[in-house]
């Protein structure tokens, strides 16, 4: 234990800081390398900490977030994910009726179902995202109300709650809007019942307005069916509710009402769902928690590399401070005092590095936000100050611990006699740190290469249809009333290749159906198929290919009693020679006229699922127009389509998007991970090289006499460079040998989340090994060449 401190000790501590500052000023190169390495590592750690902290704060700001639960479903049906966020629109209502633990319940049709709606007030027509929600939605989620009462805001079927941003666009104010009329899709008036503050970036629910779910029941009665899924359901439970007992009691409600024993309900904490589950139209596609853990681990690795770099640089300069330590020990300084001195220096370095790290963070934060899709703001608050102070102290203690113990342990007599010898343990520990650094660096390089190649693979893989040069927009207003006529006019526009309407987005699951049966099907087994409804020309417009039979054609008359299946569906049904065979859909016979080749309507995380394509009549409110245009002068073609649309459909702003952009968004997380990993790997390598440079400097200093003698007896500069380099290359090879199996295992596990994935070939490891060796040679050759060029007379005289 350290002895009791008195005033003299504090004076001594003050002197330690003064000496530390002088040493930093005296050796500016050493100071620059140390501060640069630490600041780069700390900046990276801070950015990752901001990102992780932001991810962990999503959906945690509601007043009663610990009591808000989402009702999910477990599903045992083949082809379905184990958990789904979609169920019947009646689930929340029935659970609230039966369970006294429920304080409030609400169903929700989220805005992800819809493209933007058109809202009108006076002469203003605004496109906005909307959703339908149960009357107690604002009792469950405490979005701040600027006007209106949360108990009444969705009580009436003709009510509409709008965000403050939408209110400003429509009315130019947020005040005195209760009762104001808003025209919805130029068809029906709704009356403002409340104005809410638009959800901020820390809410997973993003929307511009809310309509009553009771109104949706009237317009879309299918949401009240227990056999149809889609709506999300939420409950606010009373304090003290035993969630395990609650889940046991609600598990059978879905099966009881739907007669489908493959489905069971359970409640999951809403605040945890953002990280634990990622859903796409009811299908679980992964979890964000894995990436939170991954980047937290990367932050720890990079900070560890930066600390190791400091240790190696400090021990490299140890020979220059041996006499200082020896004299202080002779004068009576105890070891703990020396340890305190060197730790003080380390903390000063860490504090200065933290200042520069903050400057780097401020400079990099806009680009980092753009890359990650975040809105992180660096604001001074007690949590941030304590976090930075904690990181500074921990970094200072970690990075300075080994140099402090190393330097303070010198024997003063041996130092002053100049007979100090490096122990085997010291040598192994120092080299072990370098091996650890480059093991992490090599692991990161392999990871970056694999992630990059996999992202390139999924983005370039042919999905089975042509996603290029296709624009999508809503079928609404007059377009919806006469789709076939409008579509014929669109096809006449120069630059338009083809056009069709469909209810499917072509991305993710949009419409699931269990109502298909065929000869040989088990009547007790519910089988899910994805449904694609479209007009004539759907298959041709989307660039799909037929494996057998034909597509829908007006030449064959009315084909609404026909059906087209994909190859996966035929394989699952085990139908031989399917063309002309009959299946039952919604209890009616459908003749198979074609088999379309499998295409990916989900991301490559999933295998191609069975699906069917039916001929859909015009006028479906869910329809989207798909228009394929020629490459080249796309802007002129789109402007012509816009002009036709706005002429044909006055009052409806033309809002479109490209299909290929939506396709790429499926892999947005992987793309971001790949880019961030590249930057982090580059930073880790840079810091590791600084540590290697420090060890090369130390070795050159220790072998100065040997180098001088070798040069006197005729050794060439090249032979000395090789002599000094080969030991470091051995360390790097050891690092590579350790890193490659670990990297293969980690990347193999990550690739398992993709149904379609690359193989981790030997070229990945060959590229990594070559890069690491070249970087090592470049780093150490500078110092080795410098040592080899020193005049041998100077080296021997110094001894």
Topology:
Blueprint: H1 7-26, H2 28-56, E1 68-75, E2 83-84, H3 91-98, E3 102-109, E4 117-121, E5 124-128, E6 130-133, H4 137-140, E7 145-147, E8 159-163, H5 164-171, E9 181-184, E10 188-196, E11 209-212, H6 213-219, E12 232-237, H7 243-250, H8 253-258, E13 263-269, H9 270-276, E14 278-280, E15 283-286, H10 289-316, H11 322-330, H12 335-372, H13 382-408, H14 412-417, H15 424-460, E16 470-474, H16 477-481, H17 483-491, E17 496-502, E18 512-513, E19 516-517, E20 529-534, H18 538-541, E21 546-549, E22 562-566, H19 567-573, E23 582-585, E24 588-596, E25 611-615, E26 624-629, H20 634-648, E27 656-658, H21 659-665, H22 668-702, H23 704-712, H24 717-751, H25 762-788, H26 792-798
Parallel strand pairs: 6-11, 8-10, 20-25, 22-24
Antiparallel strand pairs: 1-2, 1-12, 1-13, 3-6, 3-12, 4-5, 4-9, 7-10, 8-11, 9-10, 14-15, 16-26, 16-27, 17-26, 18-20, 19-23, 21-24, 22-25, 23-24
